[in-house]
Amino acid sequence: MAGNLLNITDSASFSKSLQAHPTGVVHFWAPWSEPCKHMDTVFGQLAKDNPQAAFLRVEAEEVPDVSETCQVAFVPHFTFFKAGKLVDKLEGADAAQLAEKVDQHIKLGAPMASQPPAAARSAAASDTSLLAAATSRPDPTSTSASQPASSAGKGSALQQRLEQLTHAAPVILFMKGDRNQPRCGFSSRVVAAIQEADVPFQTFDILSDEAVRQGLKEFSDWPTYPQLYVDGELLGGSDIIEEMQASGELASTLQEVIRRGTPSTAGTVAPAAAANGHAAAAETQPLQQRLQQLVSRQPVMLFMKGTPQAPRCGFSAKVVKSLQEIHQPFGTFDILSDEAVRQGLKEFSHWPTYPQMYVGGELLGGCDIILEMAQSGELQSSITEMLPSS
């Protein structure tokens, strides 16, 4: 860790650190936020590149007085100080904009000619490995990053290629590097998680193909890498995979997919199996009806791992705490107790992870959305607006 990159745990050390440096940048973050992790890599590199300034990391929920003083509504949130006074801020995960503001406030008027072209900064905003393109001379090999994201639109050649790639194997990981030589810590940890599950899988190095690297973000509606696809469907990124690994869900999910895809089950369908297909289709409707009843069982329903008294994962615990803090009554369903609901609700809601909160029978969101609303003070009003009027 760079000597000027400091973790702040109280308001006194916050003030002392800013007073000790003529300029400073503060990253307000939260451990549950994937964009914060993405931006933290950028923040660390900028700290190394600018040793004359203080770069402070503040866990927003753990140092609330500092967060309130800096008017932090959601994370990631960056503030810029000169002579101990707040002079600018940046909200959201925009690596290129962060690099520009550091140039503006820390490097004290760096000439505009030194700024890279917009295409390179756009690439840096969506992927931390291109930070150099956002802070130094552009790399001629990165010009393909300037192609519009719409090139991955429906029906395009790239769309068709991405469709084929995501179905290239029952389990395929789009990552930086390959399984033998991962090029980032997130990719390395996901590779290790899949290997622990003891299933065959393929990898695709997104650093080797800029069109895939940019296009897959729009295709999957997921802004970061790695991305794990199972049976052609996005399972999630680093945070989701690691959470599933910790709960034991990853191994069972991947092993089930591999079992379904083995030659003994993926070959010619036997007549009995063909007949059973009608029964399987008939079973779908009762599950759909049951899910509809469950999500509407109480005005506010939280589908979580465990119970409010004993949450089985940190994300569920945080959402429970957010609801309790606003004194909102809610019902819960432990998805670990019912595999049919656990798997079926993901398709029902088009939301791949838990917890999930429903209000008036409609999905409000998952952990990130609920905690953002709680931080901004919008959670109670959002729930009230979604509840049917009496």
TrEMBL record:
Has keyword Iron-sulfur? yes
Among its keywords, does the record have Ligase?
no
Q: Which domain of life is it from?
A: Eukaryota
- Which protein are we looking at? Thioredoxin domain-containing protein
Print the keywords alphabetically: Iron, Iron-sulfur, Metal-binding
Recorded family membership: Belongs to the glutaredoxin family. CGFS subfamily.
The biological processes this protein is annotated with in GO are: intracellular iron ion homeostasis
Give every Thioredoxin domain span: 1-107
Q: Which GO terms describe its cellular component?
A: cytosol; nucleus
NCBIfam families named among the record's database cross-references:
Grx4 family monothiol glutaredoxin (TIGR00365)
What Pfam family is a match, any one? Thioredoxin
Instruction: Indicate, by first and last residue, each region the UniProt record lists as having compositional bias (Low complexity).
Output: 132-152
Cite the GO molecular-function annotations of the record: iron-sulfur cluster binding; metal ion binding
> For the region Disordered, what residue ranges are annotated?
132-159
The UniProt entry, under SUPFAM superfamilies, shows: Thioredoxin-like
